[in-house]
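Memo to structure team: turn this sequence into structure tokens by end of day. - J.P.
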Amino acid sequence: MKKRNRCKRNFISPLFCLSIGYGANGPVFNYDHQNEILDTTLFCQDWAQQQLGPYLVENNVWGQGNITNYTQCIYVTADSSFGWNWDWPNQGYNVKAYPEVIFGRKPWSNETTHPSLPCRIINVESLIVDFDLTMNAIGNYNLAFEFWVTADSMSDDSGITTEVMIWTDQNILLPAGTVVAVTTIDGVGYDLYYTAMDNWNYYAFLANSTFHQGTLNVHNFINYMIGMGYLNPSRYLASFEMGNEVIYGSGVTEVHHYSVAVQSLLGISQRPVPGKEFSLQRPFPNPFNAAVTIPFSLASRRQLLVEILDLEGRLVRQVYSGVLRSGQHQLNWNGESDHGSHTSSGVYIVKMSGDTGADYRKILYVR
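Reply from structure team:
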């Protein structure tokens, strides 16, 4: 095998030294990163893919056009960490590429990487992303998470209704459109951009501060958008992705840890749990307009408190407080607050609590 060595401080992190060789199955390289030697395989073909459990690493070059003087590769290491590198000329103003990691089913694909997606948005109880990466780059680029919303669970790209991005870093590049809202989610400030694309609506949350590691509670972004009327909860969340949009320049993204966890109502059993004193079941209809029915069961006679909370945890309405006998019960809420006024459209939380704990359900009020 022929080898050539190189260390590039403007393209790869200062602690990253690259040794490339070419074997029968394509390029293979080793790197010394903070005294760690790992065998790493480069995949430099356009649209190359590598499966890592429920994740698909893809060498996405969707905006390449007629450009040929570029390089972009994805890679996977022996310990299953992964990443990508790129080097694009300063030619044109459009996004050239989005090397990325995919979870779920992109509208352009026939298969999902995990059965939890696609999922109807109203059924998404939580979507939590943990990530830790190192990125060194120059030029015009971002670091962005993304999810696609489609009309149904089997839609191709013609069924896309909404594209939502969450940017946690950028240089020069800004989201398309104009700022339509400013909000804070999980302690981070974001400017929310919007524009109408040719075939779908585009939203992008641009973080006010840069971060390359942490936890994204994506369900909080979803709930915010539903409450603001930007997202239809009857649509489907098809996929969740993370990558770098690149217009020009060079860089490397090394992903040390990445995980996506989706919890949906479809995955929650509605049968009584042995030993559980009460069980809050799925409210219906959901979404609702005139009134919502809240069914629940009690294992024994007991004191119970049922409340409606907003997404900040503030009390909207106390639906019931008192003692009930064992068995199946149901309560109703008509969208009014404790002050007798109608609440605004949006997502609310049903909280049922007793002396042994609490149970919660998410509901959507549409006026």
